[in-house]
Fold this sequence. Notes:
This protein has about 750 residues and is α/β, with parallel strands linked by helices. Strand 11, helix 11 (about 300-310) and strand 12 form a beta-alpha-beta unit. The longest helix has 24 residues, at about 735-755. The strands form 6 sheets. The chain has an 8-stranded parallel β-sheet. The protein has a domain at about 5 and about 50-100 and about 110-380: Alpha-Beta Barrel (TIM Barrel). The chain has 27 helices and 22 strands. It binds glutamine and zinc ion.
Amino acid sequence: xxxxxxxxxxxxxxxxxxxxxxxxxxxxxxxxxxxxxxxxxxxxxxxxxxxxxxxxxxxxxxxxxxxxxxxxxxxxxxxxxxxxxxxxxxxxxxxxxxxxxxxxxxxxxxxxxxxxxxxxxxxxxxxxxxxxxxxxxxxxxxxxxxxxxxxxxxxxxxxxxxxxxxxxxxxxxxxxxxxxxxxxxxxxxxxxxxxxxxxxxxxxxxxxxxxxxxxxxxxxxxxxxxxxxxxxxxxxxxxxxxxxxxxxxxxxxxxxxxxxxxxxxxxxxxxxxxxxxxxxxxxxxxxxxxxxxxxxxxxxxxxxxxxxxxxxxxxxxxxxxxxxxxxxxxxxxxxxxxxxxxxxxxxxxxxxxxxxxxxxxxxxxxxxxxxxxxxxxxxxxxxxxxxxxxxxxxxxxxxxxxxxxxxxxxxxxxxxxxxxxxxxxxxxxxxxxxxxxxxxxxxxxxxxxxxxxxxxxxxxxxxxxxxxxxxxxxxxxxxxxxxxxxxxxxxxxxxxxxxxxxxxxxxxxxxxxxxxxxxxxxxxxxxxxxxxxxxxxxxxxxxxxxxxxxxxxxxxxxxxxxxxxxxxxxxxxxxxxxxxxxxxxxxxxxxxxxxxxxxxxxxxxxxxxxxxxxxxxxxxxxxxxxxxxxxxxxxxxxxxxxxxxxxxxxxxxxxxxxxxxxxxxxxxxxxxxxxxxxxxxxxxxxxxxxxxxxxxxxxxxxxxxxxxxxxxxxxxxxxxxxxxxxxxxxxxxxxxxxxxxxxxxxxxxxxxxxxxxx
Length: 758
Ligand code: GLN
Ligand code: ZN
């Protein structure tokens, strides 16, 4: 009989209970014990939601991050944390610790990076010459026992040794694979313990198998799993997030009891997979999308599963494609959502119910044919609903399908025209858009949302902040000003709320890192713009100064990548719809006299698929969407874009194809490493490499900023360089911002004198 399980479940709780408990603990409002008790309750609820599955999963819960937990499980803790112990040490590694009077030292947190192509961040493991591993399974075993009290069928999930090593960072001379043997030794000890605890199955996550790994790593897989298979415990090797390609052959050849494959991102015919897998292994198929929030199309899934269920019989397992960590917890919490929209959605808890129905259908279709028929009707309804489909959008879009969005003239020509239009100095100074989001600003937005103040009152409050922000920028002496984004709570949410096709939930939070969660909008239907969004705010800001004010909006690719995207049409199509809607906003800004318009693409890099050809395809339509948004304006309008920290070097050509007149990027944390790419690639347009790190409260030193620009000028002509912070300033306070920007402007002035002399 087919078995069901989940690779993991969200740990934040239905109403972000984990977040609130952790924050209380960090603020010393509750004791360690109280905090742990609350976590126990959250786990009980998680397991309760898994009651209809054949296994409950243990090991996916974490107080911060499961990769960090793996570092603690094997006692791989950087030596800078030696003076600390227990949860103090754990949270210092996770979050860092400022120097305080009684406790002395400050601790630098572990580096945080995005987990594959998701918006979940993990704490990067560190390896150095002193790295050793020593199993410390107390916490995990406690949780196994906790689960065992509820159910006998317990599956433990662990991050695999190869993925763990691969994702870590190491000192230069260290070969990570040399650490493998001692690490695997500890996994062996752990397996023995789990065996004693009566664990039925161990799921080992090795998602690096869906990326291009080198031959020595492939060989290491063989050796590792040979060693691990000597222990008397069943193991399931889990992969997800993309197609396995030639690593499929490797995966099926490894000694294991089963393998898991993400069917939502798989391109290999299922038959080929079934044919390759030996008869002593079970095949777990990720049939339910663990990265999105739409209901499963039962009929389609069953058409796929039923033929192979006959072949595989009790060797077929079904599951979500990956851990459900990446979707919100429970749709039942959404009491304010339109019933029709709700019928199209399934969150983590609902996805497990879907799994159970699929299992029952495989066994005896009749027993659930009602549910299946009902689902088919819902899907039919969605394909025709006028709440989803807007024919006028579809016909507008079709006109843009073959448009590549080029501006009228080349950059060189535009630059000449814009120079005359804007008359900016050498090394123009600007900021990325947002200024401090003060308490008063937040309060005003909240009061307006809760209808405690009317629109007029709200607008006058926000306008006061805009005016303040403009005055300050003039005082500081910046060249290109911004309005400061006081009206925006979040750069994606704000535009989503003002476009049709997006909906918002109350509790659909997804963990981003630690206690931080995001609530992505849902792109439910065709996207269009029915009213001006930013025009009045920018015009107001412009009316308060004779300097030029940049219009500011979020680009189509970032809107897409930070939302849940509909699955009934290609992502590229949805992106194009957003692009066209925003294009109208850009044109409206231009018509109202705005001379510079910034289109932020903070998330362009992170939405890139893991596999090369898919990445190329993505970059092509992503760049084209950006160009369509930007391309409707005349040569004299200057288009800026901004991108946050990520590794741009491999995609510099695509960035150049975006053809923004100016790009501002985050470089300060990488110490301008990024700029090396310009040695080999002649980037022609203007560029503002962020000169200081806005993520830190420190006021930057003039000489550091100056050096950064001088180094940049080694690779890039000084006439192309802008001077700006590396990201928006909304998380900083005014005093930090003023001090930092005054220094930044001073640096620009000094540089102008120096470079004008030569
Ligand atoms: N314009 C946005 C801001 O300044 C950009 C934010 C971002 O890059 N994440 O806040
Ligand atoms: Zn940024």
